Amino acid sequence: MMQQAAIGLGVELRVLAQRPDDPAALVVPGTVIGDHHDLDALKSFAAGCDVLTFDHEHVPTDFLHELEASGVAVRPGAAALVYAQDKGLMRQKLSGLGLPCPEWALISCDDDLADFGATVGFPYVLKATRGGYDGRGVWMVDDLAAAKAVLAGAAERGVRLLAEAKVPFVRELSAQVARSPHGQAAAYPVVESLQIDGICREVYVPAPGLSEAAAVEAQRIALTVAKELGVTGMLAVELFETGDGALLVNELAMRPHNSGHWSMDGAVTGQFEQHLRAVLDLPLGQVKPVAPVVVMANVLGLDLPEVYPAYKHVMAHDPGVKVHMYGKAVKPGRKIGHVNVLGLPGRTLDDTVERARHAAAYLRGEIDE
Amino acid sequence: MMQQAAIGLGVELRVLAQRPDDPAALVVPGTVIGDHHDLDALKSFAAGCDVLTFDHEHVPTDFLHELEASGVAVRPGAAALVYAQDKGLMRQKLSGLGLPCPEWALISCDDDLADFGATVGFPYVLKATRGGYDGRGVWMVDDLAAAKAVLAGAAERGVRLLAEAKVPFVRELSAQVARSPHGQAAAYPVVESLQIDGICREVYVPAPGLSEAAAVEAQRIALTVAKELGVTGMLAVELFETGDGALLVNELAMRPHNSGHWSMDGAVTGQFEQHLRAVLDLPLGQVKPVAPVVVMANVLGLDLPEVYPAYKHVMAHDPGVKVHMYGKAVKPGRKIGHVNVLGLPGRTLDDTVERARHAAAYLRGEIDE
């Protein structure tokens, strides 16, 4: 999807991909196949680039520092990206900035688990500080015994744990901002995301019924994070909204994010173009939606070996649905694409949600009518 | 630009390009370098494709017939595309269908030139039946001597001529439709194009002040052409509007067309996506604009060797401008990109035109403030 934006801007995108059948490798000429855990591969790749950026957080932090030391323009830089890589560091930093977080503690031993349980009660949440994704690396523990079992398993694999209070949230929000090296920032409308089993399923734009004050607060949090952590490029701050309307930071992502895919069709400047503009230190684009409501629904792989035949039905059923498929092999639960729907003036949000949900369900083979 | 649409649809685009630095070759992996005047190159390229389509009209008609005879799905097919390749055949066909054309005659000898002058008067227009583009292959002749000189020059180069009356038009319009092999069609809003020296400079969407009746008539003409000529994919019918509101067909293009670039940002379904959907026989997408007015301005190469530095000014000046650059080397007069601007509700068309015109002029180096 970054390639679509790069083509428009006339910017040459080069990609380091792990495998020749990675989606990016299929659409970007001259993709280099290599491992982002290999410093030499990273250095050799970066040598041909004006700016190095990412579509995931998994390049080792030390390597990012080495690349920067050797003169590579890494955006976001290692000093910022580490907070998207390490949830423990992220909690320390955000709490230090006075930004609202769930109660949390770093866990080193069984006593830490018991202490945290005494403070917030059970159940609570344990998270791997690094490497979790889409619900992986997260455990809800009902009692101390369960917590100890998770810690033992984590210790065996060399995984460090963070404990967080279970937040009685009513919904999840996402506040996305872009920030450039010269310090310009732009805040997208705050959106609501529907998560099931830790995986984003749908996004509603703007977050329905969110008060102006809460929206401004969410954007303030995201802009503060971007500035104080020195983020360049797109930043997504995932937030919990609690019953009393309070906001708590859940996760950070420093790249185009699933919660911003709506902007590809629904905003004047899509998040991939904005990310490129930000990391290239070009002025940022307008973030205004082009429709009163926009809905994004993820297409998760189910058991259709091939989604293309479903296009005929989905496109005929609703010519307004924007289909984005990623060229990934279909695997159960894998995000293989998404659809965006722009709401029609005078129609309800429900109508727009129904359109997006139907298209995504049909594309994944969940329904056949 | 087709690659941007192909990525979204998850369709693998393969390109046959003349040179490794052709814009498409820069952004599409595995581009085959070859000559579209070479039947073997065409056949070998087509062997790996489900559907063969075009971004220009210059593949020899005979070769298209041979490809079809060998089982290649050529869309638009040779029987349709020939009318976009040969202006003489186009005039015969459209007049046969009763569609409004300027007065015209095929020219074989000096007597034909004199006869046509006696019928419509001087000045009139001579056109090469094949190969003209952006004002090339078009001559306005003031008298018989000038006409004879053009004919003599054309005969030397083996170029056949068509004569057309000079139309006292007040503006040029373009009616774009998409049509698929199974016969579905969709008509985009009729637009006005501003041409200078035979080159499109700006497009206004929808055509300002066009009556509902005239818009419907323009769409009817385009839909009739698409159906009766058996077009698949995008079709642009360029029209003259005369002082009394009559419409006359000027040119046909059977591909995404400059007059439709506005749709990339300004319509639910952009013309490149629509072309792919049409030639792949997928259901067509919604053609509704996403803003009350949309303006496209071409960026013509002037004397800036490198346009990228101008981005900072243009993007900072107006964050709502959508920049599309083609990765072409800058040559005077060459179309090297375009900008789209979505009009803001409550603002005038003039305001939107001014925004697009400023950005395009700055990008081409015509202004520096």
Automatic annotation (TrEMBL), chains A, B:
Its pathway, per UniProt, is: Purine metabolism; IMP biosynthesis via de novo pathway; 5-amino-1-(5-phospho-D-ribosyl)imidazole-4-carboxylate from 5-amino-1-(5-phospho-D-ribosyl)imidazole (N5-CAIR route): step 1/2
Reaction(s) catalysed (UniProt annotation): 5-amino-1-(5-phospho-beta-D-ribosyl)imidazole + hydrogencarbonate + ATP = 5-carboxyamino-1-(5-phospho-D-ribosyl)imidazole + ADP + phosphate + 2 H(+)
In alphabetical order, the GO MF annotations are: 5-(carboxyamino)imidazole ribonucleotide synthase activity
Cross-referenced Pfam families, in alphabetical order?
ATP-grasp, PurK_C, RS_preATP-grasp-like
* UniProt: ATP binding residues: 87, 127, 164-167, 172, 250-251
Q: Which family does it belong to?
A: Belongs to the PurK/PurT family.
Protein name as it appears in the record: N5-carboxyaminoimidazole ribonucleotide synthase
Q: What is the protein's species of origin?
A: Catenulispora pinistramenti
Q: What is the lineage of its organism?
A: Bacteria, Bacillati, Actinomycetota, Actinomycetes, Catenulisporales
Q: Which gene encodes it?
A: purK
